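REVIEWER CHECKLIST
Item 1: Sequence provided? yes
Item 2: Single chain? yes
Item 3: Sequence as submitted:
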Amino acid sequence: MTSQRNSKGKSSRAPKSFDNWINSWDKLLGETTALEVNTMVVEHITGEKFIAWETYRELYMISRKDLQNQGVHESLRDRYLELRTNIEREYVSLLRDPNSELYDSEQARNDTKPRLPDPTQTTIQTLLRNARFLRCLRKLGELKAALDHRNQAFKEKESETSDQVSHKAVKTDLIYAQTVMQLDSDIINRYSQEIFDHSHKELILQIHREGVQAAGVQWRGLLGFIVDMIERVGKRNTSNSTS
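Item 4: Structure as written out by the authors:
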């Protein structure tokens, strides 16, 4: 009798565990339906590590008044504010996504945009453990670092009045080429206007093409692995349930 109860208990828990496992892979597959490759020319590569809390705090503090007080170049302020808007949009999306661990049914019914959590609050750790939010945070942090370098270049050259020198000051830390590949076979290529006047245009484009090709191979391999894994486990689970 005991062995029968244990057997039933295991069989009742197995489908739930399997469904959870499938759902976790399904979420991963849903987040890998597009590949984005950006090619930048930077003045130098820093050895700074990604620290989620610090990156979040820097983005959280961005405001037009703060940018003005810090003396951020006027031409870059809207770009900084766009980063702040993007992190807010991702947070709201997580709150209103029924499949998200942070789903809030009240927020889903409310049209009022919630405020970002204060980085000094302990509740921020829950948000910073979310894999989807972390991926967005890392990308925005990299874009902010590029803007910081451009702003520093402006500061270093602000005493020089030559248009040519000023133009050189903003030549680096730009995304010169961007390619987005989607599962429905759509491919979107974007090129910064500055690349057409760049002295190393052909080299930059060649590096970008090679990067897209290498990333595409890895991306397709990852998708194939996920699909194959789900199919194999699904067949095994079906076989066990019928036996």
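Item 5: Key structural point noted by reviewer: Confidence is low (pLDDT under 50) at residues 1-14, 162-170.
Item 6: Recommendation: ____
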